[in-house]
Amino acid sequence: MNATSRTRDSRLRQASARLAGARRAKAAGLGIRGFSVLVAIATGAIHLQAQTPSSPPKLPTELSNIRFNSGQSVVPYFEGWIRNSDGTFDLVFGYFNRNWEQEVVIPAGPDNTVELGGPDSGQPTYFLPRRQRFVFRVRVPKDFGKKEVVWSLTANGRTEHAFGSLIREQEITERVVMTNGGYDPGLTDPNKPPAVTLSPIQDAVAGRPVTLSVAVADDGLPKPRVTSASKPASSGSFGAQVNSSGSGPRPIGLAVNWMQYGGPSKVTFEAPGPLPVTDGHAVTTATFAEPGTYQLVVSATDRAMTTRVPVTLRVRAPSN
Questions:
Q1: 132, part of any domain
Q2: What is the pLDDT of residues 200-242, one digit of tens each?
Q3: Which of 2, 40, 286, 310 has the smallest number of Cβ neighbours within 10 A?
């Protein structure tokens, strides 16, 4: 007899002893109710001990605390719908690339399709890591009713779907998009989103830096923050949480950000992350790995509201 069997037999003997004690309690005049409670406890203990050895182990269905750099799916998201002045509606979608590093290319087609909108409905084909909100829209007619727009994505062997419909509780406004999810209607907020003007882009050649320059105008609201220099944590104590991303200080006023939306290959920006606007301009360079047609999105934010402008760029192969 092994140790597990001996332990089980010992526990069964203890439960049997409790049951015998319950019977003696009844004989001593404990009463029908007290006797029933003791019998239930003892019988339950016997049943539990008898079942435990044969119960299959319970394993977690998802290890959410594990960080996957690649190999995970890309999940489309339905963000909500916007009512247009002409009676039509815009269904707004975003996505969540569950990978922390892998940037996924999924051309429009069987692995990246929008039902009711057609296989190519202007959806993104280049997916950056993690959550990207309010990325693209599908316009539907005023008589759309209770139909659905389904966006399906297949990445790393797994297919995910997003279902867009005109459910009343999911109605949003342009302000929600411009504030990246803020639901304050802004009835008393005089702030206006920045205006963005893109300078003409020079001849774009694969493998060579291309200058990207935008002019940004704003109403000056909200006022730029005044921040003090951060104090390093004392080496002798735990201290407070410190941002160690290495990306440098975040802009405190107007800022511009470039994002890849589509294209045959990766676009490498000279300065990833927010670019501060200096004298009304923000300038960077981008290098396109391969020739082809690329879609970018440039956004300007005043920290409260954001303006997004799509940019399409054709990149040619270098001359021999």
A1: yes
A2: 998 899 999 999 999 999 998 887 765 555 455 444 433 333 3
A3: 2
